[in-house]
Write a structure and sequence with these properties.
Strand content of chain B: 15-25%
Radius of gyration of chain B: 38 Å
Order of helices and strands of chain A: EHEEHHEEHHEHEEE
Radius of gyration of chain A: 17 Å
Largest interface: A-B, 37 and 33 residues
Number of strands of chain A: 9
Number of helices of chain B: 4
Helix content of chain A: 10-25%
Strand content of chain A: 15-25%
Distance between the termini of chain A: 36 Å
Shape of chain A: globular
Oligomer: heterodimer
Shape of chain B: elongated
Strand order of the largest sheet of chain A: 6-1-8-7-9
Strand order of the largest sheet of chain B: 5-6-7-8
Number of strands of chain B: 10
Order of helices and strands of chain B: HHHHEEEEEEEEEE
């Protein structure tokens, strides 16, 4: 059963209070073996307590699926990019390197990549994702566009991103201020210094590598 | 909310929203309704956009074979299905032909040699003895019934090659492994798991000598 098209995910990072409720709620689910698929990232931990919840953005052109050599990452007709198919995934980590948002994670011990699939077991039967259900400040909101417009009159959802030369449109929206609504969000804009290249040649990330901390 | 293909998959974001609560496609406004009341809105062939943004017809073939989108990946074209049918049945035909050619061209087994297996006088009425024919690894039974009939069968049960035991009083050959029973007079399987009769050894009696002259494998 598909996820209804009029129900969308809205992430408002400025509302995040870093309570880890989403991470805990995600951890309790058994469809991904008790691992948290949502990442709670600190923007600049030395200077700020601001945190950002990172769920899979479910790209219209999923880079993770484009780079998958085993054809393991599939997107269902409702636009949800599913986690790696277990019989196919070879745990090569291409998707981990390629994802502009840093969502997929490699579990070497069980030789599989697992990522957020918008709680497909819940959303496909009309329920909200677990993180959106528990988020106390509704930084993670799942509902209709009218609802979010009524709830956040100062903000406007955007789903266009830039990552180097790559333009990404996603199924998941990020809330931006309405007065200065951006045409797109630059994923790497918050990074002060561009990390040095590891000599990895991918057409989409030849200028900056936001995953320098990822061990490959 | 059907998508207009000419406007791309993002068109649903630009469509004006119908604010009425009871408008179509807005059943269950709260987002907690059952999922099966909604129709899938996107055409499977309209979803995948390659990184270079060119239409699917200009893309290399592998992009259609290894589509990212699940519906397109599961889609089997009629031509592909027909190709599969033709190739698979062709392979079956080729395999059958190969087997037929093999069985025609295979060398026939050499005819069994004539071999002396014992003296008739050494075998009492109502007794049995063992011999090996046609090779040393083929144990056989030679039986002389009380009414002076000579019978010879391979001793290996046709089920799992246990040694069969002649029971002349009951008129059977009994396999103790799985309670298989063969008829003594003909060697046919009459009870238990054995799938076919015991091979019968053709005998020839010249004077006092018994010769085995051939093996008769039977399927029924």
């Amino acid at each position: 059963m598909p996820v209804p098209q009029h129900l969308e995910f809205f992430v408002d990072p400025s509302r995040c209070i870093g309570c880890q409720a989403c991470v805990q709620a995600c951890t309790e689910c058994d469809t991904h073996r008790g691992e948290a698929m949502i990442h709670l990232e600190y923007v600049n931990r030395a200077a700020s307590i601001q945190t950002v919840p990172v769920v899979c953005m479910h790209c219209e052109q999923p880079t993770c699926a484009e780079v998958c050599p085993a054809d393991a990452i599939k997107r269902t007709g409702d636009g949800v990019v599913q986690s790696a198919r277990k019989p196919r995934c070879i745990a090569c980590g291409n998707c981990v390197v390629a994802c502009p948002f840093g969502v997929p994670e490699l579990y070497v011990d069980r030789a599989i990549m697992m990522k957020c699939d918008m709680c497909y077991d819940r959303t496909s039967i009309g329920k909200k994702p677990m993180c959106a259900t528990v988020c106390p400040s509704q930084a993670l909101f799942f509902g209709t566009r009218e609802q979010v417009m009524a709830l956040r009159p100062q903000s406007t959802p955007t789903n266009k991103f830039r990552f180097g030369d790559q333009t990404i449109t996603t199924r998941v929206n990020v809330m931006a201020p309405k007065r200065a609504a951006p045409s797109h969000v630059d994923v790497t804009a918050a990074m002060e210094e561009k990390p040095h290249s590891r000599g990895l040649r991918l057409p989409v990330i030849d200028t900056a590598d936001p995953f320098a901390e990822v061990e490959v | 909310m059907p998508d207009d293909p000419s406007r791309g998959p993002q068109s649903r974001f630009e469509q004006p929203l119908d604010p009425r609560v009871d408008s179509p496609a807005r059943e269950g406004l709260t987002g907690t309704a059952r999922g099966d009341i909604y129709e899938p809105t996107r055409d499977p062939e309209d979803v995948t956009i390659p990184p270079d943004q060119r239409p699917m017809q200009e893309q290399p073939r592998w992009r259609r074979d290894f589509a990212i989108d699940w519906p397109e990946d599961h889609y089997v074209a009629r031509r592909d299905f027909a190709k599969f049918l033709v190739l698979t049945s062709g392979a079956f035909v080729a395999g059958q032909t190969w087997i037929a050619a093999q069985s025609l061209l295979r060398k026939r087994r050499p005819p069994a040699v004539r071999q002396r297996i014992g003296a008739l006088s050494a075998l009492a009425l109502g007794s049995a003895t063992m011999f090996a024919y046609p090779t040393a690894h083929d144990p056989c039974l030679l039986i002389r019934t009380r009414d002076d009939t000579l019978l010879a069968y391979g001793q290996k049960c046709t089920h799992l090659s246990c040694a069969v035991v002649p029971k002349l009083d009951e008129g059977i050959l009994h396999c103790p492994c799985h309670e298989g029973v063969f008829d003594l007079a003909t060697g046919r399987n009459i009870a238990g798991p054995p799938p076919r009769p015991l091979p019968a050894i053709e005998l020839e009696v010249v004077g006092d000598d018994i010769f085995a002259v051939g093996v008769k494998e039977r399927t029924v």
